[in-house]
Every structure is written in C-alpha cells, then in structure tokens.
Amino acid sequence: MPELQETGIALLDRFVSWLTDARGLSRATASAYGADLGRLLSFCEGTIRFDRDTLRAFVRSESERGLSPASLAREVSALRTFGEWLDLEGTVDGGAARRIPMPRVPRRLPGFLGLSEVMMILDSYDTSTPAGLRNRAIVELLYGAGVRVSEASAAKLDDLDLDRALLRVVRGKGGKDRIVPVAELSVDVIAAWIAVRNIFTRRDPSAPWLFVSVRGRRLDPRDIRRIVEKGVLSAARTAGATPHTFRHSFATHLLDRGADLRAVQEMLGHSSLSTTQVYTHLTGDRLREVFKRAHPRGEDCKG
Known about the structure:
Blueprint: H1 8-21, H2 27-43, H3 52-64, H4 69-89, H5 115-123, H6 130-145, H7 149-154, E1 160-161, E2 166-169, E3 178-181, H8 184-196, H9 221-234, H10 243-256, H11 261-268, H12 273-294
Antiparallel strand pairs: 1-2, 2-3
Helix pairs in contact: 1-2, 2-4, 3-4, 5-9, 6-8, 6-10, 10-12, 11-12
C-alpha cells in the first residue's frame, strides 16, 4: 500500500479539526487522539503508512513498551476512527484498522464516596471568603448535578436556571446538549457564589463563565482538579477522590435511593445504558451487605 502523500503532521491536524468540528468531540479528547496518532507517525518515521502489517507492528511495539490494556484500547480506537476519516476523505482505504483486534480491558468498578465523606470535603472549604465559596460551589455542582469536570469548567451563567434548579450542559461528551437537575442545597451554595462573583470579574464584567479565577478568567479542568484535591487533602478519610469520584457518587447515591436507571443515564449523558449499569453492581454489593447485617439469616447469604 502506498504511503499517504500528505505530510503526516498536516494530515493529523486536519483529522483533529474534523473530530471537533464534525464529530463534536471535546478538544481534550481530539488532542488525545492526535497524540496517539502522533506516536504512529513517529513509528513510521515521519510518513504515515496505514496497511495492516504496519498497524499490527505499531500496536505490538506499544504493548512491548509497557502500555496498559486500557491505553492500548484507546490507541486502537484512535486508529479505527482515523481509518474511518481516511475512508470519508477518499485518501486511502482505512479498513486496515478495523482488522486490528481490540485489547481486552478488565472492567473496573468506579469508586465513590459515602454521603458523610462528601460532606467532609464540602465542609472543608472556608465559605467566609469568595474563593472558598467558589470552591465549595464547584464541588457542589460536581456532586449535586453529576457533571464531568470539563462540563463544570465550560458552564456559563446563562446555562444555570436557579429558580428551577436546572443546568444546561452544552455539548457534553458525545456532542449532545442535556438538561440536568441540580440538588437544591447545591443551588443555594452556587447562588451565594454568584452573588459575590463580581469581585473576581471587575476586569471583565461580561465574562460569561460560571466559575472564574480571581482575575476573571475561566477555570479550566486542571484548576478544578486542584481545588478538589485541596478539599480532599483536608478530609483525611477521602484520600484519592477526584472530580470524577463525585460524579460516580452522584449516580450511586441516586440508584441507592431507587432512582430509575434510564433517568440516571439521561442525567449523566451516557449514550449507552450499559455504561450506566455499572453503578447497579455497586448498589447491588451494598444491598447484599445490608441484607447480611439486617436479616435474621443474613449470614447464610452467599457473597
């Protein structure tokens, strides 16, 4: 199979632009795909080849350098998506990537916090200061609406309906907008933050972002992770929690209390119900533990 005639870097730049413009992927996801394919470009010494033997050799070399099954699976996914784009472009036959087997990734159940642990983190922020109030409001949104860290970062004032306790998540993962309810106690904290937010936006009163820095710029996902980490470090029993842990906790607590699985799917913005069903395993384990402790013959219950 002939090499692709366009220079590798230019080709990848056009592919990444297509991912964001046509497929609606976030810039972070598109950049990750571009980075994976950049390693293919290096493997091919600057000119991408897209035949089956080259792709198999590339994946094998990535495995040999110690990549985890999950990382390999992501790279194969990037190759397949790139092949799909090459087909659409009519550049070359991109079907070779579809014949690369997808590595098997062990299914890992997401971690979550108990309600008392969530409260420990929330209470760790000093809400007597504007920055502390903002930080608590961020974590309140992560837990009270189950949004992703990128979605919290991208939220604008106009996306929030305080009166109805609703948030419009604009073009979340998968490129779809959705409306999610926000816990009313979380809304109270967020409203208190908005009331003092102008202290941070004096340089640009028209800044649209819900969460801003002391200089009025939008907080990016990295900023939010640092804010969460600060609260986690202040609550000793919650070591290791991340912004996504609050999303997992949101889903788990809803299902624990009888929420409909499809409603939770819609709130989380999952395209597939099977993605949401992982939380039923968590709640099932907890139900068995409750049964063992409370039923007269609970010890007879098999794990």
